[in-house]
Amino acid sequence: MNSRDTQATFDSWLRDYAGILHHVANAFATGADRHDLMQELMLALWRAIPAFRAASLPSTFIYRVTHNAALTWKRAARGHQRKLDALHDLQPASIDLAGQPDADAPTEQLELLYSAIRILEPLDRSLVLLQLDAVSYAQIAEIHGLSESNVGVRLNRIKQKLTTIIQEKTS
Questions:
Q1: Per-residue burial over 152-167, b = 16 or more CB atoms within 10 Å of its CB, e = otherwise
Q2: Torsion angle, CA of 72/70/163/109, rounded to 10 degrees?
Q3: What is the full DSSP assignment across the chain?
Q4: What is the pLDDT of residue 12?
Q5: Least crowded by CB within 10 Å, which of 71, 87, 127, 138?
Q6: Is 70 found in the same domain as 147?
Q7: Is position 144 within any domain?
Q8: What is the pLDDT of residues 121-161, one digit of tens each?
Q9: Distances in Å between the alpha carbon of 149 and those of 13, 14, 51, 57, 143?
Q10: Are residues 112 and 53 part of one domain?
């Protein structure tokens, strides 16, 4: 695939499947980290385009690439966070960045859902995210290498966990 074809594919996928990238970013990060993760997801998708062989749907391929990239980003972010925590005492206390408005901040209910999803284990987080995007059990199974019945069982358990987490957060 030449660079012009790669660019055309990338542009087409971003236009048609941008929602997937946003859902993955929202499930794995908040605030400014969400924007950083979006950049990482787009870069991972760009790099993965030559590996796409149309053996699956583009959406399935994009989910696989972005979920793996998000998991890698999350592992790296944990290491960075430990270093930042060590430097926390050196930061000026008078700077309050938390009050900055976020132009594309999700609604309060959606943020509650995403905060509950962020608590889940990475595989569970990925499964529920795909379910929320109305991806079929067959596609979810293909993305994660699970059986369709296992996907169904896991999703039912995850829904119960999410219900409990949200009830605890709102009570």
A1: eebbeebeebbeebbe
A2: 140
A3: --HHHHHHHHHHHHHHHHHHHHHHHHHH--HHHHHHHHHHHHHHHHHHGGG--SSS-HHHHHHHHHHHHHHHHHHHHHHHHHHHHHHGGGS-TT---TT---TTPPPHHHHHHHHHHHHS-HHHHHHHHHHHTT--HHHHHHHHT--HHHHHHHHHHHHHHHHHHHHHHH-
A4: 93
A5: 87
A6: no
A7: yes
A8: 988 998 998 888 888 999 999 888 899 999 999 999 999 99
A9: 30, 31, 29, 21, 14
A10: no
Distance CA 45, CA 55 (A): 17
pLDDT at 87 over 80: no
| Whole-model pTM over 0.70 | no
Domain of 155, in residue numbers? 107-171
Beta carbons within 8 Å of 77's beta carbon, 6+ residues apart = 29, 33
Distance CA 149, CA 117 (A): 22
Side chain identity, residue 128: V
Q: Is residue 10 part of a domain?
A: yes
Last residue of a domain, one of 87, 118, 141: 87
Residues 81 and 112 in one domain: no
Kindly state whether residues 30 and 60 are assigned to the same domain: yes
